[in-house]
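[09:14] KT: can someone run the structure on this one? pasting the chain below
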Amino acid sequence: MSALAACKAPDIVYEPRPDDVIDGRRSALEAGVNTEMDYGPKQSLLLKSYQEAQSSVSRLQKELDELRRGKQATETRLADESALFAKEKALRVQAEAEAESLRGKRRELEARILSLGIEKAKLEQSALQSRIAYPSARAASSTARTSSGKYGFSMSVTISPSVSVVCRLSERATPDGR
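[09:31] RB: done, structure tokens below
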């Protein structure tokens, strides 16, 4: 019980001194750092919040630096890939131009082959027409005979006459015939 009586002691409650800056009329921020409230629970919570904010800012700054490095590396990689793509595109355009050139040459050669084939066919046609137009010259130099057999078989034989010429060497002639 004596403890309870001690709580009611009138000298426990202090009135603010007349020279105390924090007397309820001014705030703690205006009073400055030399007051009894500097180490109170509100001040320690404010300090803790400030320290947490500073650590959060430093952590975010580190993350920002890391993201900037990643961005720079990605931009470098993108620039390299763009250069490779441009080089590949140039090579592809060059290859297409070469392929088109080769296709043109092939078309020219095919056209030449066709024109030579047409010319050959015309020559063969004129040769056949000349054989048809002049059959007597050929008939004079050879004799043709056709014989038919059983079951619709037939056989043609062309006989060419042979001419023999007798040559005698004169006494003035040389061994090679002059």
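[09:33] KT: thanks! The chain has one domain: 17-159.
[09:34] RB: yep, looked fine to me
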